[in-house]
Write a structure and sequence with these properties.
The structure is a homohexamer.
Chain A: H1 2-15, H2 17-20, H3 24-34, H4 36-47, H5 58-72, H6 78-87, H7 92-106, H8 108-125
Helix pairs in contact in A: 3-4, 5-6, 5-7, 6-8, 7-8
Chain lengths: 127, 127, 127, 127, 127, 127
C-alpha cells in the first residue's frame, strides 16, 4: 500500500495549482488554445523583449518579479519564478530573506504561503 | 493500475477549490449551513434582483463579473461565472480576448491563471 | 482674489491623483521621461494593438477595463477610462448599473469610490 | 489672511478623497445621482438591515469593517468607518492596537496609512 | 475500494493548501528551513508579543485577523485563524455573521470562499 | 505673493497623501501618537533590525520593497521608498525599467501611477 500512497501523493502534487506553473511550456500550450493573443504577447514581448532589455540585470528582474508575486499572493505563478530566480543567481538564502523582509511589507499571510511554496521548490531541486 | 490513477485524478479535481465552485447549488447549501444570512442575500438580492435589473444586459453583467474576478484573482468563483458567461452569450473566443486584454490591466499572473481555468471549463463542456 | 483662487484650485488639482489621469496625453509625456519603455509599450502595443484587436468590440473592452479598475481600486486610472467608456458607447445609466453590480462582487468601498469619481466625470462633461 | 487660509483649507479638503467620505450623507446624495440602485441597497440593505442583524454586536461589526478597510487599503471609506467605530464603543487606544496588529497581517504600508488617517480623525473630534 | 477512496480523499485534503495551515507547528518548521528570520519574528514578536499586548482583547484580535484574511482572500491562512477564533471565544454563529457582513465590504467572492472554508473547519471539529 | 504661494503649496502637500510619506520622520511622529506599538516595531524591528540583516544587500531590499509597493498600489508609501532606493544605489534609469517590467506583472494602472510618482520624486531631487 505504501507505493500506492506515494503515487497518490505525487498525483495530488501534480494537480495542485501552485505546481502546475512550474512547467511553463505546458502552461503556454494551454494558454495558446484559449487566448492565442496572450500567448503571442507572452512569447514575443514579455519573454522575448522585456526580460532582455538592457536597463536592468536579469537577477534584478527576478528579484522584483518574485517580490511582486509574493506581495500580490499570486500563488500559481510563484513556483516558476522562484525556479527562474534561482537560475538567475538569486540564492536560496536570499529568497529566505526576501520572504522575511516582505512579511513586513505585504503581511505575514503572503510571506507564510511564499515560504511553504519556496520549501517545495527547494526540495524539488535537491540532487 | 490505470483506472485507479484515473479515479485518483478525478478525485483530486473534485477536491480542487476552483472546480467546486462550478456547482453553485452545492456551494449555496454549504453557505446556508454556515452563514444563513449570506445565502439569503445571495438568493434573494444578488441573483434574485441585481442580475435581473433592466439597466444592463445579462451579457454585459457577465463581462464585468468575469473581468472583476480575473482582476481580483478570485479563482474559486471564476469557473462558475465563466460557465454563466458562456450561457449569457459570451463566446469562447471573446473570453480568450478578455483574458488577453486584462493581462495588460490586471497583470500577467492573473491572466495566466484565468487562461488555465478557462481551458478546463471549455474542455469540460465539450460533447 | 479670483486669480489666486484659480491658482489654488490648479495646485489642488495637480496634487489630486484622481484628476491627473483625466489627461492621458500629459500622463504619457510624464511616463516617457521616467520609463520610456513603458511609454513605448503603451502607445505601440496596448493602445496601438490590443484595443484594436477584432476579437472583442471596443464597448466590451471598455466594460471589462472599467470593471477591472473599479474592482482593483485603481482610482488614478478610472477617470480616463470612464471617459473612454462613454466615448465607446457605454451610457451613464449603464455605468451606474456597473457600479451597483460590482458593489456585490468587489465590495461596497470600491463601488462607493467609483460612484464619486463617476459623478465628477459626468459633471465635467456637462455642457 | 485668516479667511483666505480657510478658503484654501476647504478647497484642499474638497479635493482630498479621504476627507470626502467623512460626510456619508453627502456621499449618498452623490451616489444616488450616479447609481440609484447602489444608493437603494446601501440605505435599504447594508445600513437598514445588515448592520442591525442581531447575530453580531455593532462594536464587533465596526471592528471587522475597519479591519477589512485597512487590509484592503480602501482609504476613502476608512475615515467614515473610524468615526462609526468610535461611536460604536471602540476606543482610540483600541484603534491604535488594531492598526499595530494589522501591520503584521496586512503589511506596514496599509497600517502606516491607517495611522495617518486615524490621527486626522482623532484630531477632528477634539473639543 | 471504499476504504482506499477514503484514504485518497483524506490525502487530497492534506495536500490542499487551505488545510495545511491548520497545523501551525508544521508550517513553522517548514518556514524555519526556508526563512529562519521569518520564523524568529513569528514566534518571538507576532505570537510572543503582539497577540499578548494588553490594549486589545484576544477575541477582538481574532475578529480583526479573520476579517483581514477574508478581505484579502488569504485562503491558506484562514483555516488556522478560524480555529484560533473559535478558541478565543468567537462562536460559529458569529463567524457566519462576519462572513455575511464582509460579503458587502470585501465582495461576494471573498465571502463565499470563506464560507466554504468555515464549513470545513466546523465539520472537522465535530465530535 | 511668494510666501502665500508657499503656504498654499505646503497646505496642498500636507493634504496630498502621496507626498506626506516623503517625510518619514513626521509620519513616525504621527504614528506614535495614534499607535505607539506600531511606532516601536517600525523603529526597533523593521528599520532597526530587518533592513540591516546581512542576508540581503540594502539595494536588493530597496528593489523588492519598491516592487511590492508598486504591485500593491500603496501610493502613500512609494515616494519615501523611491527616495530610499535612490540612496541605496538604484539609479533613475533602473527605476524606470522596474516600472516598465512591473506593468506586465502588476498591470498597467499600477505602473502608470508609479511612473507619475517617480517623476515627481525625480523632479524634487533636481539641483
Amino acid at each position: 500500500m505504501k507505493p500506492l500512497a506515494a503515487t497518490i501523493a505525487s498525483l495530488v502534487l501534480i494537480a495542485s495549482p501552485s505546481i502546475r506553473a512550474e512547467q511553463p511550456k505546458q502552461t503556454l500550450d494551454e494558454i495558446r488554445r484559449v487566448a492565442p493573443g496572450l500567448e503571442k504577447y507572452t512569447t514575443g514581448r514579455l519573454f522575448g523583449e522585456v526580460w532582455k532589455r538592457p536597463g536592468l540585470a536579469p537577477r534584478d528582474r527576478s528579484l522584483i518579479t518574485v517580490a511582486a508575486l509574493i506581495a500580490m499572493y499570486r500563488t500559481d505563478q510563484l513556483p516558476g519564478h522562484l525556479e527562474r530566480a534561482l537560475n538567475n543567481g538569486v540564492t536560496r538564502e536570499e529568497i529566505g530573506e526576501i520572504i522575511t523582509h516582505l512579511a513586513f511589507y505585504a503581511g505575514w499571510p503572503a510571506a507564510m504561503t511564499a515560504g511553504t511554496i519556496a520549501r517545495r521548490i527547494f526540495d524539488g531541486r535537491k540532487p
